[in-house]
């Protein structure tokens, strides 16, 4: 009797162990496939501008007596492609740094109104070009413990997107609020919106809703990944509410105080 019991106990433990092993194998496979996908995306994203540069430079080299205007035009195009590659590499480096969790955030007290006003001031020329009105009203003084550089970049990405994905004459509205524990920053636009079935994917690296549509805006597909990582490192959360052809609202929550040891 007792032997049977011990036997069945061992059997159960083996089954549990086998299940745990299977689960771990699944997880490793997932990590590996995400990594492969990432490397393949990086290569593809860099290859596209590189091919353009190759075609542009070759067509000048192969032609005799190239007119000066053509030189200028092609060099201009090559220059934009180089800028594009630089932007991708820059974003990648930022992401890699964020991934290295051992690098501590540089937390300090920051006036968030000042931060938002700084972001708006910097992006205003971009908004003006498209005749987009940015609305922001300071409600109350809010300070929080944040990494100034990282959070500024994270929120600036949201405002930059709001301007990029909103047609001429639209509006971007920013709000800052707080309760006893959290601050809330929202960025809402009257832009093109994101289809329901794609909303969940916008934080993925290199994910773009419509590849051709976005190529024109010069995005790298990495901005929201950077924002997401930064908000997570502040122990916060980020949510997207969007309706196609109506607009998008992104809501960020971060704790007012961080446990800085
Ligand atoms: P990108 O550099 O292409 O803007 P992001 O990571 O910042 O990359 O955003 C990912 C994708 O999410 C964008 O390519 C775009 O399709 C979509 N997106 C982000 N913000 C908005 C927005 N405010 N309105 C509509 N679509 C958006």
TrEMBL record:
Segments forming domain Histidine kinase: 41-258
Keyword Signal appears in the UniProt entry: no
UniProtKB keywords: Kinase, Membrane, Phosphoprotein, Transferase, Transmembrane, Transmembrane helix, Two-component regulatory system
Subcellular location: Membrane
Keyword S-adenosyl-L-methionine attached: no
Primary subcellular site in the record, as a coarse category: membrane
Superkingdom of origin: Bacteria
GO-annotated molecular function: phosphoprotein phosphatase activity; phosphorelay sensor kinase activity
Any GO BP: cellular response to phosphate starvation
Domain HAMP residues, every copy: 1-33
Entry GO terms, CC: plasma membrane
EC number(s) from the headed UniProt entry: 2.7.13.3
Class in the EC hierarchy, top level: transferase
Catalytic activity: ATP + protein L-histidine = ADP + protein N-phospho-L-histidine
The protein, known as: histidine kinase
Species assigned in the record: Anaerotignum propionicum DSM 1682
Location of this fragment in the whole protein: 238 to 498 of 498
């Amino acid at each position: 009797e007792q032997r049977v019991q011990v036997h069945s106990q061992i059997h159960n433990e083996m089954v549990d162990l086998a299940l745990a092993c299977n689960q771990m194998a699944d997880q490793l496979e997932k990590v590996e496939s995400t990594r492969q996908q990432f490397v393949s995306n990086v290569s593809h994203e860099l290859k596209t501008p590189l091919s353009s540069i190759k075609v542009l430079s070759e067509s000048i080299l192969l032609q005799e007596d190239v007119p000066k205007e053509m030189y200028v035009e092609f060099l201009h195009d090559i220059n934009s492609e180089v800028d594009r590659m630089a932007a991708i590499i820059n974003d990648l480096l930022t992401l890699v740094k964020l991934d290295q969790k051992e690098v501590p955030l540089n937390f300090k007290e920051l006036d968030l109104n000042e931060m938002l006003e700084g972001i708006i001031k910097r992006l205003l020329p971009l908004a003006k070009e498209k005749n987009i009105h940015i609305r922001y009203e300071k409600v109350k003084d809010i300070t929080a413990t944040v990494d100034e550089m990282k959070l500024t970049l994270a929120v600036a990405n949201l405002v930059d997107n709001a301007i990029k994905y909103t047609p001429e004459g639209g509006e971007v509205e920013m709000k800052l609020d707080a309760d006893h524990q959290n601050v809330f920053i929202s960025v809402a636009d009257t832009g093109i919106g994101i289809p329901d079935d794609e909303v969940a994917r916008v934080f993925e690296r290199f994910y773009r809703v419509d590849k051709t549509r976005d190529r024109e805006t010069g995005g790298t597909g990495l901005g929201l990944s950077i924002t997401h990582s930064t908000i997570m490192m502040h122990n916060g959360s980020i949510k997207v509410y969007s309706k196609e052809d109506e607009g998008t609202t992104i809501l960020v929550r971060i704790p007012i105080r961080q446990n800085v040891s």
